[in-house]
Design goal:
The structure holds 3 protein chains of 3 kinds. By secondary structure, chain A is of the alpha/beta class. Chain A has a single domain, classed as Response regulator (Rossmann fold), CATH 3.40.50.2300. In chain A, about 40% of the residues lie in helices and about 20% in strands. A 5-stranded parallel β-sheet of chain A has the order 2-1-3-4-5, with helices on both faces. In chain A, α1 packs across α5, α2 packs parallel to α3 and α3 runs parallel beside α4. The N and C termini of chain A lie close together (about 10 Å). Chain B is an alpha+beta fold. Chain B folds into 5 domains: about 130 residues, Four Helix Bundle (Hemerythrin (Met), subunit A), CATH 1.20.120.160; about 190 residues, no CATH class; about 55 residues; about 180 residues, Heat Shock Protein 90, CATH 3.30.565.10; about 140 residues, Roll (SH3 type barrels). Chain B has a 5-stranded mixed β-sheet with strand order 6-8-9-11-10. A 5-stranded mixed β-sheet of chain B has the order 19-12-13-21-20. Chain B has a 5-stranded mixed β-sheet with strand order 14-17-18-16-15. Chain C is mostly beta strands. Chain C has a single domain, classed as OB fold (Dihydrolipoamide Acetyltransferase, E2P) (Beta Barrel), CATH 2.40.50.180. In chain C, a hairpin with a 2-residue loop joins β6 and β7. Classes of the chains: A alpha/beta, B alpha+beta, C mainly beta. Chains in contact: A-B, B-C.
Chain lengths: ~120, ~725, ~160
Amino acid sequence: MAKTIMVIDDSASIRQVVNITLKKAGYDVVEACDGRDALGKLTGQKINLMVCDVNMPNMDGISFLKALKASQGYRFTPVIMLTTESQESKKQEGKEAGARAWVVKPFKPEQMLEAVSKLILP
Amino acid sequence: MEIDLSEARQTFVTESIELLQEMEGALLRLEGSPGDQETINSLFRSAHTIKGSSGVLGIESVERFTHAVENLLCKVRENEIRIDKKIIEVLFECRDHIQVLVDCASSGAGLSQGLLSREAELVKRLGSCIGGRGDAPDKTTEKETSGAEAGEGRLAATNAWHISIRFNGDLFRNGMDPASFLNYLAGLGETISITPLFERMPAAPEMDPEECYLGLEVDFRSEFDKKTIEDVFEFAREGSVIHILPPHSRVEAYMDMIRSLPEDFLLLGEILIKGGALTQHELDEALDMQKGEDAGAEQHKRLLGEIMVNEGMIYPEVVDAALERQKLSQASRSKEARTMRIDANKLDSLINLVGELVISGANMGQHARRLKDGWLTESASIMSRLVEEIRDNAMRMRMVPIGETFSRFNRVIRDIGRDSGKDIELKISGGETELDKTVIEKINDPLMHLVRNAADHGIEMPEERASKGKAPKGTVRLNAYHDAGSIVIEVSDDGRGLSRERIFKKACALGLLSPAQTPSDSELFRLIFEPGFSTAEQVTKLSGRGVGMDVVKRNIEALRGAVDVESDGRSGTTVRIRLPLTLAIIDGFMVGVGGSSYVIPLDMVVECVEFSEAERRAANRRRYMNLRGEMLPYIRLRDFFGTQGQEARFENIVVVRCAGQKAGFVVDDLYGEVQTVIKPLGRVYRDVKGIAGATITGNGKVALILDAPALMEGAGGGATASNLN
Amino acid sequence: MSVASITESTQYLTFKLDDEVFALDISQVREVLDFTTLTKVPRTPDFMRGVINLRGSVVPVVDMRLKFGMTKTEQTVNTCVIIAEITLDGEKLILGALADSVQEVIELDPDQIEPGPRIGTRLNTDFIKGMGKRDDEFIIILEVNRIFSSEELAAAHAAKDEVA
């Protein structure tokens, strides 16, 4: 069965880029537009990995990570943070909150795939 | 691996347009309240997202420039730079430049030299905004000014709490001592003054020594919050009246606090408590009062905020801030409503199909009735009803609020104000009014023209306004509401109004009127929609570009709408546009002429009367009839359409009203109301006069929809009021 | 010039107006319908016979007999509406054409087609793409796009406006 990856980003075009990239590599993709939306969509479905932006309205990536780590079902789900080079401090915050990897925007689809394939269990 | 991102690029363009729209909104809000952190955050986020997405998609031109903008916004967000008018102006221009860059990326056009130098200039200005203001901002000045303004003399400039207590008469009987409260209070801060009040004290014979008549007004300085101070009187609260007004410096703090609340709090009271301006106890009390009033007449029910202000619990400006906060969170909540994007074409094709389904349902119903099969008729009618419901729902999907279109004009008004030196405010109401998306798209240009006209020609310069005794700030108002199956959009201003004289002169010059005529205001003002009519003495950069009101009128009529203007010639002009809610379906009234069926839009039909024998005989001589003493110009469709065949023995006249004028259409038969899915007739019949479209009737035939306004021109053209007599 | 545009074997739908055989390039024909009720649009030229309901779309129908100077098409059991797709000012347009009867689909090689006659037909020669010849029978191959060019339609409207 295909692995499912959740993409959380407030930018529809970035979600789409990640979505297209991951689908092409054979993953199933679920999209959420911010942390709150993502939490709402985590209702028992199996998510193998998450790709999450940092700066989002309603609930930012760090708060989402914290909420995720406090949850029952998803606290071991690996999360890749999407950051920009200007957010060094956020990177640290994200690391403390439990992010497993970073992909720095702007990224190439191949970089995204590489990060995903390293983290997702076969 | 080859990954095709062209689809994502398309998404990027749509997304950027939305984000740029948000940026514009945020900038406009910042002009009003430059310190609003949430707005700054949202501005930053928009720029940040555009930068991030363009980077991922490899649209370097956008990424590079937006990065520069983001840099400045980042500093603003971190409070390293204080936002001011100059920065807002630069940001406005940067926003526009990003839009140009996105457009270029979307069309694949390269950047011209002009654009590049424009970019260099903007980047330089961005740099100077960052560089020239390294120092931490002086935050205090502005706040203190507004704090002092808030005072209104209710409390002197003492920066103190004011506590007003009327003790419960049973205080002593309950074993309590007023002095103990004051002692306790003294432990929380510094008591400045205590004024005892005895106005409740009766004359000595009636006085009950066990009764407490005391009231106190206390000025008190403390760093503690309202709740703590209120708690001092915890035991005396029952039966006592206690008001605690915060020091003025706190008002601003409350307002700040309220503005920075997360967006989840929706009730006014909750917002105020969260902000620290109100205690739970006070809220309960106010709510009780409100409930008590409920019992009385509903219309006298006061608003919660009003009660709290009147009871001296809180300052009005704090309530205002809270209400604004509430509005914001409602807005953002409604935005979060579960939505999904649907390609408009898919929706159109769905609506088309359902329209067909309605027709074939009606068809089936007819057959069922012909077969006289009760069960079949019943099922057919149930199905028809369901299908109609589906259609209505499908139509509703295409309905969008007009607010977004309205708010785009904020920028227009602002720019006109800046360029012309006028002080103009745009007030929007009825933004939640919904109408068909296709109508909204088509109404934009006419609205733009009207808004520009209002701001440019309507609103006077501040000095001129002042000399007329008007407020120097002019107002342009956009309003929308539903009215009897149509939507009405009003563009009004409180400017100089239409000049009777000038319009009259121009109308005579154009040969529309003779100098001897004395038209009424509305007749005269309506002439501004005639071609070639532009009385502006001075053609400015913004309006008067040769596109006149006649184009506005034509565009609106193409949407089956009508436009009217009202002005008292002194204090403003209102242009009222009436539009159908949707372009796809109308309620129609079906008539027959010589064996063909025609549909008249039902909302235009006033009544149907018999075309009497006497009128018929007079028909050759004149083209108007006497309808209960009123002159009614009419048009005989049989003649107008050159219909062949036997004349009907009896004819009827359908009285139609459009744009405030009445006319009659003479027809053979009246068939009654029909719901009509409008089909375009296509370009082959583009120039046919009097026909607006076609529709398919229940029996599968095509019926033509009459273009009532055009026909009325035919009816009225030869028979204006003046040559009737 | 007319012939130069026909370079490979093409299929044609043939039909009769009066006793003459006409043909249309099959790629322009969508379908053929039985004659159905027409709704006349007032104040339009006579040859524009009206509109029909084609599965929910409103499609104009022209009377080619009138257009070509013959008498009006009368309805018989054989009368058909040929639904054709034409290009008008770069836009695709669906149009119905009345025919007394539809014959068959034939294939003609370019060498079976001659240029249209300059004179000797009732038709405006501009409307003729070429003359096909088969079994000693002449087939007039029509240039539909030109018959319903915007000039033709505009001329029709102008003529009507003078009357009105």
